[in-house]
Amino acid sequence: MPEIVTDLRSDTVTRPTQGMMAAIAAAELGDDVFGDDPTVNRLQDRIAALLGKEAALFVPSGSMSNQICVKAHTQPGDELLCDANCHIYSYEAGGPAALSGVTCRTIDGDHGILDVSQLEDKIRAADDHLVRTRLVALENTHNRGGGRIYPLEKIQAISGWAHENGLLVHLDGARLWNAIVVTGVPAHEWARPFDSISVCFSKGLGAPIGSALAGSREFVQRARRIRKRFGGGMRQAGLLAAAALYALDHHVERLAEDHRHARVIAEAVADTPGLILDPPEVETNLVWFKVDPDWATGQAVAATLRQNGILVHIAAPQKLRACTHLDVSAAQTEKAAQTIRQSLRRLAPAHSPDP
Ligand SMILES: Cc1ncc(COP(=O)(O)O)c(C=O)c1O
């Protein structure tokens, strides 16, 4: 097997660059549980300003960030409305139920995107038998939706309706940076319709660890207490905040490069019989594709690519994801596209013809 040359499994696999390591080494530190790490405070102030919110909180991961927000917005026995494929429901180990006693009422979005008309009849009546509908959670860009960007007018319609009906609205913006770069719509515009937002530094921005949540001062104060309870209070966390600040300075605009690379990979997938891009258009850095079960298994496709030095993520038996990021160069992208086009032609069919 050749040495792995290109890891397209996720944008979380990046290693800190030398510049980022230098920023980490130079970070001014303090004990953030006491609130006196200057680098963490600088990052929190910057995120609050960027997102146009009163306050922000640095947390270890995107999952913790989302789950803190769910807990801070709800009481046990409440319900949240979300797309069936969203990260909060699908990929956070049952967090809403386990950590907040919250049930998720899932709705099938169009590649993760909900329309307000799908939500309008989903608020439970005030009745002693029923859960209380409390929160709507959206995701932008949508990971399992194929990296799709939520149309801003759909977000505004959902948020307007939710607030008129006494619901709160949370955004999982793990990859909001990608949406900002594609659309040119600034972070605070995307954030305005939401009561809370979570953003990640450890995906496309290339930091090793760290996310942040933002909202009103009062909300963030509650979130801080929940972070402590969840075990997310970190001490000299300025080391990590320095990486996040460096990423904000150096790694946002360059996401456009990842998006270009993703389109190159997507073209190779589209040119390969037996692979089906899903969704057909690639808007950001995630390329999701299905494998025709009459041709091959997802495992077989991934194994063939692996033998040829390309790693992809197997998300479901017939569903794969390739993801471009900071550690994938233009040359690696071209090579990966060529490998997809050439190596899979030689793949044996999943079902041998009858003898
Ligand atoms: C959309 C989305 N939200 C949240 C997360 C969770 O982030 P973390 O891995 O830092 O917990 C991810 C992780 O990939 C994600 O894709």
Secondary structure blueprint with pairings:
Layout: E1 6-7, H1 18-25, H2 38-51, E2 55-59, H3 62-73, E3 78-83, H4 87-90, H5 95-100, E4 103-107, H6 116-119, E5 132-139, H7 152-164, E6 168-173, H8 176-183, H9 187-191, E7 196-200, E8 211-215, H10 217-229, H11 238-250, H12 255-270, E9 275-277, E10 286-291, H13 298-307, E11 310-311, E12 313-316, E13 319-323, H14 330-343
Parallel strand pairs: 1-11, 3-4, 3-5, 5-6, 6-7
Antiparallel strand pairs: 2-8, 7-8, 9-10, 10-13, 12-13
Residues 12, 61-63, 66, 87, 139, 143, 172, 174, 200, 202, 211 line the site of pyridoxal-5'-phosphate (PLP).
Which structural class do the helices and strands define?
Answer: alpha/beta
**Secondary-structure element pattern, one letter each:** EHHEHEHHEHEHEHHEEHHHEEHEEEH
- Principal-axes geometry comes out as globular
Number of helices: 14
Integer average pLDDT: 96
The hetero compounds bound to this protein are:
pyridoxal-5'-phosphate
Low-pLDDT sequence parts: none
Strand content: 15-25%
Number of strands: 13
Helical proportion, percent range: 25-40%
Q: Sketch the major β-sheet.
A: 7 strands, mixed
Distance between the termini: 32 Å
What is the C-alpha radius of gyration, as a whole number of Å?
21 Å
